[in-house]
Design goal:
The chain is α/β, with parallel strands linked by helices. About 50% of the residues lie in helices and about 15% in strands. It contains nine helices and eight strands. Helix 1 crosses helix 9 and helix 2 crosses helix 4. About 0% of the residues have low confidence.
Length: about 230
C-alpha cells in the first residue's frame, strides 16, 4: 500500500508534534516537525542578539548562516534531536522565549520562503507526516490527507502547565493561558500564511481525548486514506 503525505495543522499546544511523531513511528512514516524549524530560527536570532520582533532586516541578512537539521532519535524517550548549525538545541527550542520568538520569525516572508522550500522537498516523496501552522494551506497543499488538530485554549494551557511542572520548573497557569491566547492571535492574524483550517482538512478536536486515543484517531485516518490512493 502506498504511503501518503500527511499535513497536520493546528494551534500551539494542541499536541500536533507528539501525536504526529507517535503516528509516524507506528506507521513507519518520516516525521517532520516544522514548528521546531521556526523555533530553531528564533533561537538563532535570540542567541545572536537579534530581537525576533524588531530585527527582521538583520535576521534576513543572515539567513544563509542558518542550517537546521533533524538527527535520529536518541534515548528511550525517542525524542527527535534538532540541530542548529550542528548544535543540539532540542531543549533550547522549547523554552518560552523561543516559543514566542517562533511566531515573530514565522511572520517574516524571507524566513518562511527559506524554510518552506526545505519542507516542500521533504514532503515530495510521500511517506511523510508534517505538522505546523500552514502545512495544508501553503507547504503541502497537495497532501493526500490534511488534518486540523485542535483543542480548547484551557486544555492546551493545562497541557503546557503540566509539561513545565513535570520538569520541576516553576510556572503559572494563568500566565501560560495568556501566552496561548497571544500565540493564537499572532498565528491567526499574521500577514504571511496565517493559521487556518484548509477547506479539505479533517477536523480533529482532542480536548476530550487522551494522548493514545488522539494518536489512534490519526492512524485510522491515515490508514483509511491509504486505501484510496493509487
Amino acid at each position: 500500500m502506498k504511503k501518503i503525505s500527511v499535513a497536520i495543522d493546528g494551534p500551539a499546544g494542541a499536541g500536533k508534534s507528539s501525536v504526529a511523531r507517535a503516528a509516524a513511528e507506528a506507521l513507519g512514516y518520516v516525521y517532520v516537525d516544522t514548528g521546531a524549524m521556526y523555533r530553531a530560527a528564533a533561537v538563532y536570532a535570540l542567541d545572536s542578539g537579534i530581537d525576533p520582533e524588531t530585527g527582521a532586516e538583520r535576521l534576513v541578512s543572515e539567513l544563509d548562516r542558518i542550517d537546521i537539521a533533524f538527527a535520529a532519535a536518541k534515548g528511550a524517550d525517542g525524542a527527535q534531536t534538532v540541530l542548529l548549525n550542528g548544535r543540539d538545541v532540542t531543549k533550547r527550542i522549547r523554552e518560552a522565549d523561543a516559543s514566542m520568538g517562533a511566531s515573530a520569525v514565522a511572520a517574516i516572508p524571507e524566513v518562511r520562503a527559506k524554510l518552506t522550500a526545505e519542507q516542500k522537498k521533504m514532503g515530495e516523496a510521500g511517506g511523510v507526516i508534517m505538522d505546523g501552522r500552514d502545512i495544508g494551506t501553503s507547504v503541502l497543499p497537495g497532501a493526500e490527507l490534511k488534518i486540523y488538530l485542535t483543542a480548547s485554549a484551557d486544555e492546551r494551557a493545562m497541557r503546557r502547565y503540566k509539561e513545565i511542572a513535570g520538569r520541576g520548573e516553576s510556572c503559572d497557569f494563568e500566565s501560560i493561558k495568556r501566552d496561548v491566547a497571544r500565540r493564537d492571535e499572532n498565528d491567526m492574524n499574521r500577514a504571511v500564511s496565517p493559521l487556518r483550517r484548509a477547506e479539505d482538512a479533517v477536523l480533529l478536536d482532542t480536548s476530550e481525548l487522551s494522548f493514545g486515543d488522539s494518536v489512534e484517531k490519526v492512524i485510522d485516518l491515515i490508514k483509511e486514506r491509504e486505501k484510496h490512493v493509487l
